[in-house]
């Protein structure tokens, strides 16, 4: 196979994006939330856990701690009990309470709108900040790279990187900024329905003609 030029890869990425947009016109964030605070909580809980499981847990969390102020004053043991089934619950409880304390102490109890302000909050990495900025505020600051996005970007040969922040940089260079939030939803939806880990359904995949990893 001849090496693909940058221009050819960019054109293929645009075709992938257009095809997935047409296939999943409703693609969206599947973490249930009603405001930026709730999305931040849900995203912290979603580490190493499915969105379905997080959505089972968050109604009780939001009812018990409806605001950053309430969560900032919570007992760790009580938070741990509520979120236990999401895994890594001790670390997540510490992150949630620490994050809420940070919101109250430094941001007037509001979720900030910038990467620079979000990143120092406990439990908030670049991925979580991208989710919140993109989905709560409509700010395309980066591409959220989760396990599906990383895996499918590699299968599509849109990146050779494995480090999520480097994968993100490659995708940001290939995808128009206005689609940075959407492209991650599209790849995640595709990864849950067709390009399933360990058993991708290449024979029924809308991207087969654009995918160097398509099996015959
Ligand atoms: S062709 Fe196969 S490997 Fe490529 S994106 Fe589709 S399902 Fe995944």
CATH class of the largest domain equals Mainly Alpha
Shape: elongated
Q: Helix and strand succession?
A: HHHHHHHHHHH
CATH homologous superfamily assignment of the largest domain: Hypothetical protein, domain 2
Helix fraction, binned, reads 55-70%
Average pLDDT across residues? Answer: 97
Ligand catalogue: iron/sulfur cluster
Low-pLDDT segments: none
Q: What is the CATH topology classification name of the largest domain?
A: Endonuclease III, domain 1
Q: Span from first to last CA?
A: 16 Å
Q: The biggest beta sheet, please?
A: none
State the domain count. 2
Q: What percent of residues are in strands?
A: under 5%
The tally of beta strands, per DSSP, is: 0
Number of helices: 11
What Rg do the Cα atoms give?
A: 18 Å
CATH architecture of the largest domain: Orthogonal Bundle
